[in-house]
Amino acid sequence: MIAMLLAGGQGSRLGVLTAKVAKPAVAFGGKYRIIDFPLSNCINSGIDTVGVLTQYQPLRLNTHIGIGIPWDLDRNVGGVTVLPPYEQSGKTEWYTGTANAIYQNLAYMESYNPDYVLILSGDHIYKMDYEVMLEYHKSHHADVSIAVMPVPMQEASRFGIVVTDDKGHITEFQEKPEHPKSNLASMGIYIFNWSVLKESLMTLSEQPNCDFGKHVIPYCFGKGENLVAYEYNGYWKDVGTLGSYWEANMELIDIIPEFNLYEEFWKIYTKNDIIPPQYISGDARISRSLIGDGTEIEGEVMNSVIGCGVRIGKGAVVRDSIVMQGSVIGDGAVLDRTILAENVSVGARAVLGVGENVPNRIKPNVYSFGLAVVGENTVIPAGVRIGKNTAVTGLTVLEDYQDGLLASGETLDKAGVVS
Q1: Which site in 105, 153, 223, 249 is 20 to 30 Å from 377, CA atoms measured?
Q2: Beta strands 116-121 and 184-193: pairing type?
Q3: Is 332 in contact with 314 (CB distance < 8 Å)?
Q4: Cα–Cα distance for residue pair 391/406, rounded to 1 Å
Q5: Strand, coil or helix: what is 218?
Q6: Integer Cα distance of 191 and 225 in angstroms
């Protein structure tokens, strides 16, 4: 079995966090990136041939993956291969849908002539043994297996739902149904028999924006192929919104976390830079937090996830926040329910996450959850105050803040990335 990992998504619901980086390359849990989880699942499951399909802002993702050394995927045969869209002699196009992206890489898959192809998304946080799913696929003599997980019935209308018989065979599909007949939601993880996948992709090659959930799966079902549901009951998180991304990070700092990053038998691997250990000053106070390597802390950190190489100055307070690598927080600054992207500079005595919890004026569906979100390489001047449900990005100066305040629900975009 080979794996095809879809990692070209923009992740627009993460707002300024994905303005300059693909969603699978966004930092997570202090030292990881989101794509580390499916890649680690692959090698832990014994899958040593992985094609990673990239498209949107791929530079940091490509640099992170490299030749696959952290995941033991630097192989002479197989290993990890980055697959961007490319110019062809005939019709050339960007990847226009999940299935179209796989279709454009038929030649890659053909070169391995696999028995089975595993289709994965590059932007979920979970641990899964794909080998167990493959055994289930074989034992049911399936043509297609879909990983599903039970969700609360009242939330089922948000998902693609499958209805099964008592043996796990799929009898019906419902795409975000108003009245769901089941609570088994598709996780977007599929195992195909190679011949079935190839035939369906070639048949649907002219379908605009060809997608697995909307086109390929219904096509296989209509043809009478044997489709089965593989039920998964472990931890799985779609970190597609700022709220779910913040929650998933905060769950890591529980005394007994639901999702344990440090299990010996199922390690999560990542690219580790060579950096010094943490420095915690005698005046610093830290409680219930993850602290990355190379971080210097002289202030107070509570219930937070701090990336590598961060500096937190004297008297600074970081509470219920995520601070990504390379950021600097000045003396006396306060962060409350704030997400700082990489290499942000927060001036002394600046206060983030204050005021009323009012909706964001430009993108209320993105910048919500009471969070203040700051894009990468942003500079925030000393002494300013920034409210909740806000987005700040770019090289900002004191004059950009009316009376030194960016009110709750406002957006300050000096980088030209928030439309």
Answers
A1: 249
A2: antiparallel
A3: yes
A4: 10
A5: helix
A6: 13
Radius of gyration of the chain (CA): 23
| Burial grade of 243 (CB within 10 A; 0-12, 13-18, 19 or more) | middle
**pLDDT string in tens for the chain (419-residue length):** 999 999 987 778 899 999 999 999 999 999 999 999 999 999 999 999 999 999 888 888 999 999 999 999 999 889 999 998 877 767 778 888 899 999 999 999 999 999 999 999 988 999 999 999 999 999 999 999 999 999 888 888 888 889 999 889 999 888 788 888 999 999 999 999 999 999 999 999 888 889 898 899 999 999 999 999 999 999 998 898 999 999 999 999 988 888 988 888 899 999 988 788 999 999 999 999 999 999 999 999 999 999 999 999 999 999 999 999 999 999 999 999 999 999 999 999 999 999 999 999 999 999 999 999 999 999 999 999 999 999 999 999 999 999 999 999 999 999 888 75
Residue corresponding to tokens 């009316």: 402
Q: Which residues contact 336 (CB under 8 A, 6 or more apart)?
A: 317, 319, 320, 321, 351, 352, 353, 354, 372
Q: Which secondary structure element, helix H or strand E, spans residue 345, and what is its range?
A: strand 345-346
pTM of the model: 0.93
What letter does residue 169 receive in the DSSP assignment? B
